[in-house]
Specification:
With about 190 residues, this protein is an alpha+beta fold. The protein has a single domain, classed as Beta Complex (Metal Binding Protein, Guanine Nucleotide Exchange Factor, Chain A), CATH 2.170.150. The protein contains five helices and nine strands; from the N terminus they run H-H-H-H-H-E-E-E-E-E-E-E-E-E. The chain has a six-stranded antiparallel sheet. The longest helix has 22 residues. The structure holds zinc ion (ZN). Zinc ion binds next to loops.
């Protein structure tokens, strides 16, 4: 009985990880620092109206790695600055559909509006279009023996996730993002 139970748990975990590797963001690592993540989350001072505005200060944000370590939680640092990927399904925004704007967790740059978020069943928050054309940048990623298109924040060059061409209309794109790279600024009620 115990043996059966252990096997079931093992296959379940294996299936979740395998599904994650198959469907998208890949490079999956476990988050051992869950418990300390929230303690050092950077407080972003940006309102919904500011995020919607086209008159934002788009100057590049440049910081040393030491400065990023001070600002970001260990998980955020590993993902945003080292190109890591969080676990699928158990991340913060995968199943969240509240109205608002997702901004970069490192610098506050507005990235995606909740209107373009959809359930890709990949286990990561997915969007079919950035909020502005120049909000994100692309880089070729040849890791894991495949070629993918990495998505970075255009303001601070932090890693956000990848883009794939299996998304819904009208763009046909799937921006597969890490929750830890995002902060949701909710629409004022
Ligand atoms: Zn940024």
């Amino acid at each position: 009985m115990t043996d059966w139970f252990e096997k079931t748990i093992f296959y379940f975990i294996f299936a979740v990880v395998a599904a994650g590797l198959f469907f998208g963001c890949s490079k999956t690592e476990s988050d051992h620092d869950h418990s300390v993540r929230e303690a050092r989350t950077f407080e972003l001072e940006i309102t919904y109206d500011e995020a919607m505005s086209d008159s934002l200060n788009n100057d590049k944000v440049v910081k040393s790695e030491e400065e990023w370590k001070e600002i970001l939680s260990p998980s955020q640092y590993r993902i945003l600055r080292k190109g890591g990927t969080e676990m699928p399904f158990v991340n913060k925004y995968n199943s969240v559909y509240d109205d608002g704007i997702y901004v970069c967790a490192a610098c506050g740059n507005p990235l995606f509006h909740s209107d373009t978020k959809y359930n890709s069943r990949s286990g990561w928050p997915s969007f079919w279009k950035p909020i502005r054309e120049n909000a994100v940048g692309e880089r070729e990623d040849n890791s894991l023996m495949m070629t993918r298109t990495e998505i970075i924040c255009n303001r601070c060059d932090s890693h956000l996730g990848h883009v794939f061409d299996d998304g819904p209309e009208p763009t046909g794109l799937r921006y597969c993002m890490n929750s830890a790279a995002l902060t949701l600024v909710e629409e004022d009620k």
